[in-house]
Automatic annotation (TrEMBL):
List of residues binding GTP: 167-174, 192-196, 213-216, 291-294, 320-322
Obg domain segment(s): 3-160
This protein's encoding gene: obg
GO BP, one annotated term: ribosome biogenesis
Region (Disordered), start-end ranges: 63-88, 450-509
The protein's name: GTPase Obg
Keywords: Cytoplasm, GTP-binding, Hydrolase, Magnesium, Metal-binding, Nucleotide-binding
Length: 509
């Protein structure tokens, strides 16, 4: 049974999640509290596309479009870090184009071994050993692992060939490929025999090039009729287009000139992907092959229309794949055109330069947006680091929440919220619109710059009063009087029987 050919699939990929860090305390004999020793979680595995010479179709992904990498392992006590998740490597054929659902090109995979990371795994969370510092010697919390990326991508296979044979069904394209190269495509006497592009390697003198046999085109192929729309994409990478015209057809309304005009209209209507540097098909080098010249009537018709085709500036070859007529001249002509196209491409190639764009000094890595929603006014904090920190926070641990608040404050989030007009109780969202964490903001007033007054002033400098000795003596006597009153109240309660000295002894025991 022949392998089914699939050249376009929608693939849903998910990278592995990062492993959670662990909060642990080192314990051993005579050292009940030996300090934090929780290990870090492992990183999640990436999803990687790699060009594999053994892969020729996207059929596996058509049957199983859901792929996920393994998660990172959580950390453990005794400073044991979790293992990283394994990368998921997906083999794809050469010439695969990776796009988003919206049509944006992410990568053009050409060259065996070329790799592209389509989804990155999440970072592992830090354990309390890594979170320990001189200020926080024994953290009672750890960070959670970061979720891996999930995305939907479109894989399109566009055949890499120098020459494309195009024409109506049963024009003899497969037969021509079989005699020009060692390829053995399916050949039969009915239309649409070729259902998949067939590649063949042709050697002409010192030049070697590849020829693609594209399935037959019919009027309306650029709009999806027949098989044209599905396989015209395989012509995009070909620099030389060869019109294979059947001069022995007996169908009414068919003649070489009409067939050529119909196919030219379909080529002009098809728009190549500009992001791949595609040149319009109507502007590429074209050669006309009048096939089946072994039939006497076909040979006579070919000789008749040849001057008209050459008058249009087209190079014409009269051949017969069955009788091997004119094949040598055709192969050397195609080799010449391919060599010329390769030379033009090499002349246009600009060496790639590595451009380093250092981060601006005043770039905080986040921004605060003031938004009006149906629930009222909110303040959204957008940035890579704040979003990652929120995802790694265990909100069931008060110490972890306090650590998050300290990190956001050091990053300058509170200051930017003040500038944006936020006040205590304002709704603050951190993260993207579809997956944000909501807070009722309570600013850190103890260290906030708003306590110092308006800009250019300092309330601490405006208070010039120093307590006198009499004021200090009065404060001391007030404190002593409060202590004496408290003792007298306790003694009164004891005498009234509310509690006794025996109760205190039992509590001590």
């Amino acid at each position: 049974m022949a392998t089914q050919f699939v050249d376009r699939v929608v693939l849903q990929v998910a990278a592995g999640n990062g492993g959670h860090g662990v909060a642990s305390v080192h314990r051993e004999k005579f050292k009940p509290l030996g300090g934090p020793d929780g290990g870090n979680g492992g990183h999640g595995g990436d999803v990687v596309l790699e060009v594999d010479p053994q892969s020729t179709t996207l059929l596996d992904y058509h049957r199983n479009p859901y792929r996920k990498a393994t998660n990172g392992r959580p950390g453990a006590g005794d400073e044991k870090n979790g293992a990283d998740g394994d990368d998921l490597v997906l083999p794809v054929p050469q010439g695969t184009v990776v796009k988003t659902r919206g049509g944006e090109v992410l990568a053009d995979l050409v060259g065996f071994g070329t790799r592209f990371v389509v989804a990155r795994g999440g970072r592992g969370g830090l354990g309390n050993k890594a979170l320990a510092s001189p200020r926080r010697k024994a953290p009672g919390f750890a960070l959670l692992g970061e979720p891996g990326e999930t995305r939907d991508i479109v894989l399109e296979l566009k055949t890499l060939a120098d020459v494309a044979l195009i024409g109506f069904p049963s024009a003899g394209k497969s037969s021509l490929v079989s005699v020009l190269s060692s390829a053995r495509p399916k050949i039969a006497d009915y239309p649409f025999t070729t259902l998949v592009p067939n590649l063949g390697v042709v050697t002409a003198g010192e030049e070697r090039f590849t020829v693609a046999d594209v399935p037959g085109l019919i009027p309306g192929a650029s709009q999806g009729k027949g098989l044209g729309l599905e396989f015209l994409r395989h012509v995009e990478r070909c620099e030389v287009l060869v019109h294979v015209i059947d001069c022995a057809t007996l169908e009414p309304g068919r003649d070489p000139m009409t067939d050529l005009e119909v196919i030219e209209e379909e080529l002009a209507a098809y728009v190549p992907d500009a992001s791949l540097g595609g040149v319009p098909l109507s502007e590429r080098t074209r050669v006309v092959v009048l096939n089946k010249a072994d039939v006497p009537d076909a040979r006579e018709l070919a000789e008749m229309v040849r001057p008209d085709l050459e008058a249009r500036g087209l190079e014409v070859h009269i051949v017969s794949a069955v009788a091997h007529l004119g094949l040598k001249e055709l192969s050397f002509s195609l080799a010449r055109h391919v060599a010329q196209a390769r030379a033009e491409i090499e002349a246009e190639v600009v060496p790639q330069r590595t451009v380093l764009r250092p981060k601006a000094v005043d770039d905080s890595g986040f921004e605060v947006r003031r938004e009006n929603t149906s629930d009222g006014e909110v303040f959204r904090v957008v940035g890579e680091r704040p979003t990652r920190w929120v995802r790694q926070t265990d909100f069931g641990n008060d110490e972890a929440v306090g650590y998050l608040a300290d990190r956001l404050n050091r990053l300058g989030v509170e200051e930017e919220l003040f500038k944006a007009g936020a006040v205590a109780g304002s709704t603050v969202l951190i993260g993207p619109a579809d997956d944000a964490v909501v807070f009722d903001w309570e600013p850190t007033l103890s260290t906030g710059p708003e306590l110092l007054g308006r800009r250019g002033t300092d309330l601490r400098l405006e208070d010039h009063h120093r307590p006198t000795r009499a004021e200090k003596r009065e404060e001391f006597h007030a404190r002593k009087d409060a202590q004496r009153e408290a003792r007298e109240e306790l003694d009164t309660e004891r005498r009234s029987g509310i509690w006794t000295d025996r109760d205190l002894d039992e509590d001590d025991e």
